[in-house]
From TrEMBL, chains A, B:
It comes from the Bacteria. Catalyzes the condensation of pantoate with beta-alanine in an ATP-dependent reaction via a pantoyl-adenylate intermediate. Pfam families: Pantoate_ligase (PF02569). It comes from Candidatus Viadribacter manganicus. Its main location: cytoplasm. Homodimer. It is found in: Cytoplasm. Beta-alanine binds at residue 65. GO terms for biological process: pantothenate biosynthetic process. InterPro entries: Cyt_trans-like, Pantoate_ligase, Pantoate_ligase_C, Rossmann-like_a/b/a_fold. This is Pantothenate synthetase.
Length: 282, 282
């Protein structure tokens, strides 16, 4: 059994811990999360621990990245369970601020990224990236780690955070880490916990359909027809609806007509009230 | 004659200089400017030098805080003159980035402060505070000084910067410094250089009319009528037009109906094509 993970809940305590590490010449890695941890998060912690001497994981379910009709209230929360998992993965400190620490009275600032945040998720969740960019800039500036680690599972989010960090000159390296998948290829996600047994089986079809679309595009199918066919397959597999399945420029997420530059396939689809996303290199 | 002031023009060079000072245990103060320096700026440098061991002054005429019809092109520029004045005031380093350093290809991030940025200047210059908050967050994060010094001459800007710095957890103390005035009370401003001799005489009336409005409000006049009378006096003094003259809450800049909390009088008025602003504690 591991020793319990130390936890801090305010910015001065967080900065004190990190300042002590820095004074000792240690490199610090940050893993921002909304809790409800799974193996995907733990792989971020392990990667961070390989690349830094000390790892801080943040746990904050950020209300500003949920629209009023979204699942903020029912989003899974289990700090004790998360804390035990983090300790076993080599995390050194949990930072779990409450809402008043993150958004004090009179809070009035938003970090808005245009361009890369506009299509795909930006179209279907217009509040999302403003909320993400604002909270991530805060978490980075509260802790000022050497590097921060984000999963490629949220690929567009990763691109938005990279752009925001470069544009604002936040002195932190942003590292993307490969998506961790279940044995049937389903991308791990805190929201998978919402799925019933039938939905869970259907969910596993998404990554296979994306692989097929990649194959079709690489074999010379027009991008638009590979996308359209994949969309039909997702619905046929039993998904309730498809928000998008798109092959895009891997950096800007702009539409493309051929594979001459690095490309990425990204998808979002609904199973009942649960929205799943996934992406892969083409 | 002073030794020439060292200058850096990119972020790595700036960070190298500051890292060396930090390693030596020195406190660093930052004075962001758009150049065209006058005694007001130099007083910021002197205050910074009293409160810190080393002072960096930034010189960047920020295109993003000018609307297309505003005076970006004709804004006065004299880096050699500015540099000599800074050296004599005790500045240790000039940071003068060009546009490509501040806004590289693909720049897509804006820092937007609502609330305190909405009235007054926000109403008449809707692009202004977005441009200011974005560039100041960049300058603070490029240099990460212990403290940054801003003039109260741009009082609303100072409040916006304080809010933004607190909201984003930028680890820099923001210090406001008193407005420096000419012998006739005119607030020093780089834009005073636009005034001809006749306009210069009229300009000096603004601060006197503001003092009268403060007296009237303190003597019990209704806020709205003190404002209306002051506005009439500004026009009668020969100003071309009045954008606003308003007595507001000193922190939020919200309208008030009495002087039970700290208040500030703020004004903006035009002399020909030159826009002057001023403010005072009530």
């Amino acid at each position: 059994m591991n020793a319990p993970l130390p936890v801090v809940r305010d910015v001065p305590s967080l900065r004190n811990e990190i300042a002590a590490w820095r004074k000792a010449g240690l490199r610090v890695g940050l893993v921002p999360t909304m809790g409800a941890l799974h193996e995907g998060h733990l792989s971020l912690v392990r990667t961070a621990k390989e690349k830094a001497d000390r790892v801080v994981t943040t746990l904050f379910v950020n209300p500003r990245q949920f629209a009023p009709h979204e699942d903020f209230e029912r989003y899974p929360r289990d700090e004790a369970g998360d804390s035990a998992m983090l300790a076993s993965a080599g995390c050194d400190l949990l930072y779990a601020p409450d809402r008043a620490v993150m958004y004090p009275e009179g809070f009035a600032t938003n970090v808005i990224v245009t361009d890369v945040s506009t299509p795909l998720e930006g179209e279907f969740r217009p509040h999302f990236f403003g909320g993400v960019a604002t909270v991530v800039s805060k978490l980075l500036l509260q802790s000022l780690p050497d590097a921060a680690f984000f999963g490629e599972k949220d690929y567009q989010q990763l691109q938005v955070i990279k752009r925001m960090t470069r544009d604002l000159d936040i002195p932190v390296a942003i590292e993307g880490c490969a998506t961790v998948r279940e044995s049937d290829g389903l991308a791990m996600s805190s929201r998978n916990a919402y799925l019933n047994a039938d939905e869970r089986k259907i969910a596993a079809r998404l990554n296979l359909i994306m692989h097929d679309a990649i194959k079709a595009a690489r074999a010379g199918a027009a991008i638009a027809s590979a996308e359209a066919q994949a969309s039909r397959h997702i619905t046929a597999a039993g998904f309730t609806s498809v928000d998008y399945i798109a092959i895009r420029d891997a950096e800007t997420l702009a539409p493309i007509t051929d594979l001459s530059r690095p490309a990425r396939i990204l998808a979002a689809a609904w199973l009942g009230k649960t929205r799943l996303i996934d992406n892969m290199a083409v």
